[in-house]
Amino acid sequence: MSINKDELYKKLADSVVNMDEEEAVNISNQVVSEKLDAYEAIDKGLSAGMDEAGKLFEEEEYFVPELLLCSDAMYAGLDVLKPHIETKNQGIKHKIVIGVVEGDTHDIGKNLVKIMLETAGFDIVDLGRDVPPSTFVERAKEEKAEIIALSTLMTTTMEGMNEVIDILNKENIRKDFKVIIGGGPISQGYADKIGADGYSINAAEAVTLAKKLVEA
């Protein structure tokens, strides 16, 4: 009898929401043994579960301790699945500088986007969390990056994204870099308002967006 992969991915997502590391590992191992697509399992399972946990956090049903336990379950599943991802490594590698803006130390979403982008064949320079706007610009110049990817989970630090674009404009180098943004409070409307080149709602969409921008 063939396995219903959508049901399996739903269980994987639930294991993250339920903060169940052991279950996340067990289901991830099942994904591997059934020879299902590890990238798809991360996207539709672990990432979807983390998105749901993020919504519960925004609705104040979950708080920071629960969010951290959800991320532990997600990382436990990632440890199993990541070695089985087929890395798309053809041709030139496009470089992306990524980080969480100053004032925010939540890097779960950023880490997931980083993994998905690496898997898609991008060369990632991870600046970590709580990164000043000027650092994004300086490193992007040093690394000769094509894209600057900015993340935040907090409304209070969103302005840092605008500051990065302001610095690029002041230095007359805005055209040299594509700027993409994402995170819980971010929307397409905010991306348009600050003049970002794109916004993605989740890690898989971030990959699609980045590919579109480097091919443009």
Automatic annotation (TrEMBL):
Keywords: Cobalt, Metal-binding, Methyltransferase, Transferase. This is Methionine synthase. It comes from Clostridium ljungdahlii. GO terms for cellular component: cytosol. The keyword Lipid metabolism does not apply. Pfam families: B12-binding, B12-binding_2. Residues 1-93 form the B12-binding N-terminal domain. It comes from the Bacteria. GO terms for biological process: homocysteine metabolic process; methylation; tetrahydrofolate metabolic process. GO terms for molecular function: cobalamin binding; metal ion binding; methionine synthase activity. Its EC number is 2.1.1.13. Gene3D superfamilies: Cobalamin-binding domain, Methionine synthase domain. Belongs to the methylamine corrinoid protein family. PANTHER family: METHIONINE SYNTHASE. Coiled coil: none annotated. InterPro entries: Cbl-bd_cap, Cobalamin-bd, Cobalamin-bd_sf, Met_Synthase/Corrinoid, Meth_synthase_dom. Residues 93-216 form the B12-binding domain.
